[in-house]
């Protein structure tokens, strides 16, 4: 299945606020009442796991084929099977650009990467899923800042809170830079989700 490109508010009304998908928020109390009108009885465990998987997929703009790959990698890696997929997603350049404040959403950051406006360690990359590593430096080209009207966004980023595993800087005569300090821990991942439900959902496919 391809990446979701439909109405974003429709998704967050059903899946609650997703900061990576859109900066808009909804009234959670009203959304809960709307959801209750269409659901009755006890939620099945399958539905609970499905909704957790969909929240993660929509927030990061993944296809149905991409998320299971991260889960399979996590099963073979050291550490928490639930936390490793989140760490891998956080280390993608599109997510680093978003978390550093250089783009308003992950889809906007992905567009910058796809259009070759992003450098990783001074090398152009057009692969949003490229696995970044600690000490990597992600930069947006100077001419791209003006082309996409990012000046105001970058100025406001200086006053925003950046996750602990990232650093953001703007040098005179140079483009904005995001530095990867290390792998993120669970506390620095802003998305409110139970990652174990995602792993449990995909375990039935194994």
Automatic annotation (TrEMBL):
Subcellular location: Plastid, Chloroplast
Biological process terms in GO annotation: ribosomal small subunit biogenesis; translation
Keywords: Chloroplast, Plastid, Ribonucleoprotein, Ribosomal protein, RNA-binding, rRNA-binding
Residue ranges constituting the Small ribosomal subunit protein uS4 N-terminal domain according to the UniProt record: 3-90
CDD domains according to UniProt: S4
Cross-referenced Pfam families: Ribosomal_S4, S4
A GO molecular-function descriptor: rRNA binding
Residue ranges occupied by any RNA-binding S4 domain in the UniProt entry: 91-155
Example of a GO cellular component annotation carried by this entry: small ribosomal subunit
Record family assignment: Belongs to the universal ribosomal protein uS4 family.
UniProt function note: With S5 and S12 plays an important role in translational accuracy. One of the primary rRNA binding proteins, it binds directly to 16S rRNA where it nucleates assembly of the body of the 30S subunit.
Binding partners and assembly: Part of the 30S ribosomal subunit. Contacts protein S5. The interaction surface between S4 and S5 is involved in control of translational fidelity.
Protein name, as recorded: Small ribosomal subunit protein uS4c
Protein source organism: Schizaea pectinata
Lineage, top ranks: Eukaryota, Viridiplantae, Streptophyta, Embryophyta, Tracheophyta
Gene from which this protein is expressed: rps4
